[in-house]
Write a sequence for this structure.
């Protein structure tokens, strides 16, 4: 796991430029640095070494030195690909998966090698023969890829993280005014363009070719469902077989492997299937709090003891949490309001003190149907038997009424999925977001405009498939995997996600919806499959995730005053109607309404802005 940065330009720059850019992402690869400098191209690389530790320094070139690559990730079938290429007559200088991609590109071309790769990756190839740059991002978006195209002066910047662009002398650091409103709705930036104007994210399953000053983007992978009618027992067996094969394939490298472990089924299944050297867990101090879900470290310790695995845990204090928010915003590059990023930062820090590689359970919910919104309780299932026209009529008549018992069911089933669902993180609606913002930060881009392109792909499919498809393309990529990469890499830790594997997807895409959610149980068949490896109580445990007591804590005077002080700073009036956001804070503090998520989303943006625009992107 590593990081790269580079640029193509007709203008000449001193080597110190690429060195300074590379230094910004040293945390992604503290083991070593490497550089490639050509007439038009400068590339920097930071290495966190696992495979061919002594011989795998990057950038790597081919035998004729006319193709160069930098690569971030792991390719799990690289030995098979390497063998095939050797049989075709190619010789290798290293034992790395990086060189396999390079030689594979030389033999098969970009689409040819992408069709063969199994793993997580972001890579850049400079092909001197045609004077072109090629960048690619893996099927699911596990690894990040950012680029900035200044076509007016034939300059292209590319990197694993946005912050690496800041030292580039001609980088124009400007706030993307369109991003803020949508961030307030989603808790992450759902746009292709980032919070930095002209800086974009290469989408999952895409690659670009930059040639003669022109940037062409193509898609090589699109998740498509192909359901197969089979028995429940067949489904369960196929899931478990795929899990065992995937975790075995992910066991590459020359170091001990650890695993994140909560009390839930996903991480428990991973741990029981891999039996890593160590497990790691975090929780919050629950003193004075009524919700036991704020601390699951005891559940993680229990399973670790059963499997005879050493477990390390940490309890995060209020002070540590609030101190950690700044670090999360710095390492995330863009403002990010998923509360779980903070405990994930501390979890990664804990694990990095013991291992260089960890497994985690990301992706199981999106592939196998694990979220609360995906299922209907008994009353919902009964209500859904009414004709949709009648449910729609009831919804229209009651949507503006004060809260009443059963309103959630009426609201959910009186509208189509496309009208009401924007993914797992809904903070506020479009109108509310616009009402909080000053003029130029308001916009007419509605959440439904951003989800429509994905819903259109599955418009003739069932509701659950629509949920899954949207979350795979938006929530998973832009929130879950982003924070997973950024928080682990902030601590120089490699994260592997065996559930997000092309062979796992081949199984998940074929499983009928009735086996994903059944009788009100999420991940129904997946949970059944996990019972072959973990205690039944673990497989049946409800999804909790990193539950954070932020809403409780900001009712304490110390943290209420801290946020109030930030909301009152002079720069805040540039973006927000200050009296309205202060009113939200006051209502929450006095217990009139729970506005914790809205407050955190505003709060994190303001902290991020201070770091990157008022403090010039300096590490906190």
């Amino acid at each position: 796991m590593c990081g790269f940065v580079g640029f193509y330009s007709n203008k000449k720059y001193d080597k110190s430029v690429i060195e300074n850019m590379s230094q910004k992402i040293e945390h992604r690869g503290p083991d070593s640095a490497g550089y490639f400098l050509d007439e038009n191209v400068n590339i920097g690389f930071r290495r966190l070494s696992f495979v061919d530790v002594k011989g795998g320094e990057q950038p790597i070139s081919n035998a004729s030195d006319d193709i160069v690559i930098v690569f971030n990730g792991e390719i799990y079938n690289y030995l098979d690909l390497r063998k095939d290429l050797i049989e075709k007559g190619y010789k290798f200088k290293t034992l790395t998966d990086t060189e396999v991609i390079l030689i594979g590109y030389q033999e098969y071309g970009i689409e040819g090698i992408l069709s063969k790769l199994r793993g997580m990756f972001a890579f850049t190839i400079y092909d001197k023969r045609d004077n072109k740059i090629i960048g690619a991002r893996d099927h699911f978006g596990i690894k990040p890829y950012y680029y900035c195209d200044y076509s007016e002066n034939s300059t292209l910047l590319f990197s694993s993280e946005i912050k690496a662009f800041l030292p580039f002398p001609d980088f124009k650091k400007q706030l993307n005014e369109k991003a803020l409103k949508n961030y307030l709705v989603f808790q992450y930036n759902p746009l292709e363009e980032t919070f930095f104007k002209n800086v974009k994210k290469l989408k999952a399953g895409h690659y670009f070719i930059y040639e003669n000053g022109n940037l062409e983007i193509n898609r090589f992978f699109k998740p498509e469902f192909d359901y197969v009618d089979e028995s429940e027992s067949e489904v369960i067996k196929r899931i478990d077989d795929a899990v065992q094969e995937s975790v075995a394939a992910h066991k590459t490298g020359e170091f001990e492997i650890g695993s994140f472990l909560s009390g839930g089924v996903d991480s428990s299944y991973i741990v029981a299937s891999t039996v890593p050297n160590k497990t790691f867990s975090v929780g919050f101090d629950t003193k004075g709090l009524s919700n036991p879900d704020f601390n699951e470290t005891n559940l993680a310790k229990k399973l670790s003891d059963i499997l005879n695995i050493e477990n390390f845990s940490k309890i995060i204090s209020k002070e540590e949490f609030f101190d950690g928010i700044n670090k999360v915003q710095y390492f995330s590059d863009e403002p990010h309001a998923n509360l779980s990023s903070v405990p994930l930062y501390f979890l990664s820090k804990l694990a990095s003190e013991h291992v260089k590689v960890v497994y985690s359970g990301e992706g199981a919910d999106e592939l196998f149907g694990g979220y609360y919104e995906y299922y209907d309780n008994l009353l919902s299932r009964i209500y859904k038997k009414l004709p949709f026209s009648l449910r729609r009529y009831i919804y229209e008549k009651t949507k503006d009424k004060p809260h009443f018992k059963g309103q959630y069911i009426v609201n959910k089933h009186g509208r189509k999925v496309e009208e009401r669902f924007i993914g797992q993180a809904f903070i506020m609606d479009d109108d509310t977001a616009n009402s909080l913002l000053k003029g130029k930060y308001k916009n007419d881009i509605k959440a439904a405009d951003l989800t429509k392109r994905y819903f259109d792909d599955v418009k003739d499919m069932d509701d659950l498939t629509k949920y899954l498809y949207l979350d795979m393309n938006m929530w998973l990529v832009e929130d879950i995997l982003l924070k997973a990469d950024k928080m682990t890499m902030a601590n120089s830790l490699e994260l592997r996600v065996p559930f997000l594997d092309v062979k796992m997807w081949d199984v998940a895409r074929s499983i009928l919806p009735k086996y994903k959610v059944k009788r009100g149980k999420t991940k129904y068949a997946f949970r059944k499959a996990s019972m072959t490896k973990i205690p039944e109580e673990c497989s049946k445990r409800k999804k909790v995730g990193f539950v954070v007591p932020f809403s409780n804590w900001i009712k304490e005077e110390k943290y209420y005053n801290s946020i109030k002080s930030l909301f009152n700073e002079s720069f805040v009036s540039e973006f927000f109607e200050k009296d309205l956001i202060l009113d939200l804070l006051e209502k929450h503090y006095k217990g009139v309404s729970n506005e914790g998520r809205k407050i955190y989303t505003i709060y994190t943006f303001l902290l991020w802005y201070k770091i990157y625009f008022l403090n010039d992107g300096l590490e906190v």
